[in-house]
Specification:
The protein is built from six helices and ten strands. With about 230 residues, the protein is of the alpha/beta class. It has one domain: Spore Coat Polysaccharide Biosynthesis Protein SpsA, Chain A (Alpha-Beta Complex), CATH 3.90.550.10. It has an eight-stranded mixed β-sheet with strand order 3-2-1-4-8-6-9-7, with helices on both faces. The chain has a two-stranded antiparallel sheet with strand order 5-10. Strand 1, helix 1 and strand 2 form a beta-alpha-beta unit. The protein is globular and about 45 Å long. It starts with 7 loop residues before the first strand and ends in a 23-residue tail after the last strand.
């Protein structure tokens, strides 16, 4: 594992699913080398994983919806956690066993950064340089897809993002039911001129399931060249 003394906070957002994957995601984080306590921000009726070692459950009294729950996890990090870095994961992420080493490398060599995305969607293949290997900068703004697993740097704009009225007040686009928080996030960092980094190969895979953001399931939602 790369030498890194940076303190990392871990958070996972979850909601009730027919295809329950939360416990698998947490065990995958552990297998990938993430040993810190995992804070789970759970909608009512979600899988209870309080029996897993090192898991702290944060139960929502009422349903917040995906975007508000995700923002709640970010706000918790900014206001309550002493850590400099936050890994924020969705509950259906499959992690490569090399993920922690790659994150530690980025923390040691790229800090301060805006966001590290451990998930590189296959749908972005045409935008990935042919010689890309390891971390590279990439951000299509509003059209960028994927908040499956992200690392935020406290020194890289996350506190401004969380407090931005345009972000806090984000609403679903016309004709849609959910806030596309991937689009909101990546557009904000693009406009702020803060670097977003992705990794080749993808360090996370997105298994076939029902998207909480309303995206239909297709091959483009898988991790690009993902290796378990």
């Amino acid at each position: 594992m790369a030498a890194c003394n940076a303190e990392m906070a871990l958070a996972v957002i979850t909601c009730p699913r027919r295809d329950v994957q939360l416990s698998r995601t947490i065990l995958g984080l552990r297998a990938a080398g993430f040993r810190e306590p995992v804070h789970v921000f759970a909608e009512p009726g979600s899988e209870d994983v309080s029996n897993l070692l090192g898991v702290v459950m944060h139960w929502n009294i009422a349903r917040l919806g995906g975007f508000r729950n995700w923002m709640q996890a970010l706000s918790w990090f900014c206001r309550r956690s002493p850590a400099r870095y936050l890994l924020l994961s969705e509950d259906d992420a499959e992690y490569s066993t090399s993920a922690r080493d790659a994150v530690d490398e980025a923390v040691a060599t790229l800090s301060p950064f805006g966001v590290l995305s451990l998930f590189l969607p296959a749908r972005d293949a045409s935008h990935i340089p042919a010689d890309a290997a390891g971390w590279f900068q990439h951000n299509k703004g509003w059209k960028q897809y994927g908040t499956v697993s992200l690392v935020f740097d406290r020194m890289g704009g996350v506190e401004r993002f969380v407090m931005d009225p345009a972000v806090v007040g984000a609403r679903p686009p016309a004709g849609e039911k959910v806030v596309p928080y991937d689009s909101v996030l990546f557009q904000w960092y693009q406009r702020a001129g803060l670097p977003v980094w992705f990794h080749v190969p993808s360090l996370v895979n997105h298994p076939p399931n029902t998207s909480t953001l309303g995206h239909g399931d297709h091959a483009g939602r898988r991790g690009f060249r993902f290796v378990p």
